[in-house]
Write a structure and sequence with these properties.
Blueprint (H helix, E strand, L loop, with lengths): L11 H10 L5 H7 L3 E3 L5 E3 L1 H12 L33 H7 L7 E5 L4 E5 L7
Antiparallel strand pairs: 1-2, 3-4
Helix pairs in contact: 1-3
């Protein structure tokens, strides 16, 4: 008995167009129609929703992965706001120091204003 060949799953703009064309079908039916299914050795058809949804996300150009370029774990992104902690400290997180390319041991001169703090890195010209 000849084995039926399974169609290649659709990707990119073709996938998006096909999903729109399928209109009111269920998610599972859309996934199947777009080729996101397998047939088990017992002949049972299984829809692969994760692959289908991931392909849709990729086709739409949505970036869900961390942009840390494989350098350790993700962490928080810079919000450019900090709060005084209960012990009175201000903590500047690693998101800022990484963005500035700072390294352990870099030193700063602190200048206090009425409602601002100015940090000037010691040993660096004010070119920037």
């Amino acid at each position: 008995m000849a084995k039926a060949t399974q169609p290649q799953p659709l990707v990119g703009p073709i996938l998006i167009d096909k999903v729109k064309e399928l209109g009111n079908l269920s998610k599972e039916e859309k996934a199947r129609e777009c080729g996101y299914y397998t047939v088990t050795k017992n002949g049972v058809e299984r829809v692969n929703m994760m692959k289908f949804l991931n392909a849709l996300i990729d086709a739409e150009g949505i970036e869900l992965d961390s942009t840390s370029n494989g350098q350790g774990r993700g962490g928080r992104s810079a919000s450019y706001r900090i709060s005084v902690q209960s012990n009175g400290n201000l903590l500047i997180g690693s998101a800022y120091t990484k963005k500035m390319g700072l390294k352990q041991g870099d030193e700063f001169e602190i200048t206090l204003g009425r409602k601002h703090i100015h940090l000037r890195q010691i040993g660096v010209d004010d070119e920037e």
